[in-house]
Amino acid sequence: MNVGKRIRLNRLFAPPSGNLCSVAVDHLIDYDEHMPDSLRAIQPTLAAIVAARPSAVTMHRGLVTSVWEPHAGLVPLIVQTSLVRVDDRVCEQIVTAEEAVRLGADAIAVTAFVRGPNETATLRTVAECVREAAHFELPVICHAYPRDLSGEAPRVSSAPEDVAWAVRCAFEMGVDVVKAPYCGDRQAYVQIVAECPVPLVAAGGSRAETLEAALQMIGDAMRGGARGATIGRNVWGFDPIGAAVTAFKAVIHEGKTAQEAMQAVRGRGRAVA
Questions:
Q1: Is 273 a member of any domain?
Q2: Main-chain phi, psi angles of 100, to 5 degrees
Q3: d(CA 39, CA 26)
């Protein structure tokens, strides 16, 4: 690995824990209707996230060019290159690796929904991202999601065998980091992590009923060997946002349980709704 890529990865997986606790606000395509207030009012949301100092923030290029300048250099930046939906109605690459470098990114993210008729084309896109990013020593993080196609509409699966397949597909394309759902089975997840030769981080998942439930899931993933997590809805979906970031940092960087992380946040006078 070239030193340039190592420097960028070390910014993301920073000491002393060497784990990643990043926040994603790249949810544009998920909310063509009824976008959550915290994403609509993106400037105060970003300010609250950055103030809590996560390992990185993931966003699309338009947010970088329009609202990121006040926060530039305070935390690492990951640029999302994909615009995709689980049902393949949308499946586009909208940013190149060169553009991401020019924006100041420390890494790029590419999203891959595997299983289904477009699986090969999706994986080819991931491989092409890896090939292009190599020219700039830019790390590639694959957001790998397996699909369950048994119902009327595709949905993301968290079945262990599906998660294992998505992780395998991603690292076989040469990515530097894989983000995938936690499968809910600690023993199975330990095996998935052990068989993944690159860092595996957990996806934050759907909005949990409580912050403590979301912390519990990420804590389970960490105890299963994950190198961290990227969280979206379960950060900016709770108020105050900064307290949610702080709680996830306690779980990911300090190894605290969900209950301990919640107590630490409450001890600072920051009740989370």
A1: no
A2: -65, -40
A3: 9
Burial (0-12, 13-18, 19+ Cβ within 10 Å), 37 = exposed
| Domain membership of residue 32 as a residue range | 3-267
Q: Are 90 and 61 in contact (CB under 8 A)?
A: no
Where is 136: in which H helix or E strand?
Answer: none
Please report whether residue 207 resides in a domain.
yes
Distance CA 62, CA 265 (A): 32
Q: Between the CA of residue 142 and those of 76, 94, 100, 145, 235, what are the distances in Å?
A: 17, 15, 15, 9, 21
Find how far residue 204's CA is from the centre of its chain.
Answer: 7
> How many domains does the chain divide into?
1
Q: Is residue 9 part of a domain?
A: yes
Q: Which two tokens stand for residue 131?
A: 């090939």
> Does residue 272 sit within a domain?
no
Q: Based on the number of CB atoms within 10 Å of its own CB, is 151 exposed (0-12), middle (13-18) or buried (19 or more)?
A: exposed
| 3-class state of residue 202 by DSSP | strand
> Closest by alpha carbon to 95, among 54, 58, 146?
58
Ordered per-residue pLDDT tens for the chain, 273 residues: 789 999 999 999 998 899 999 999 998 777 767 889 999 999 999 999 999 999 999 999 999 999 999 999 999 999 999 998 888 888 899 999 999 999 999 999 999 999 988 899 999 999 999 999 999 999 999 999 999 988 888 999 999 999 999 999 999 999 999 999 999 999 999 999 999 999 999 999 999 999 999 999 999 999 999 999 999 999 999 999 999 999 999 999 999 999 999 998 886 656 666
* Lookup result for tokens 């700039």: 136
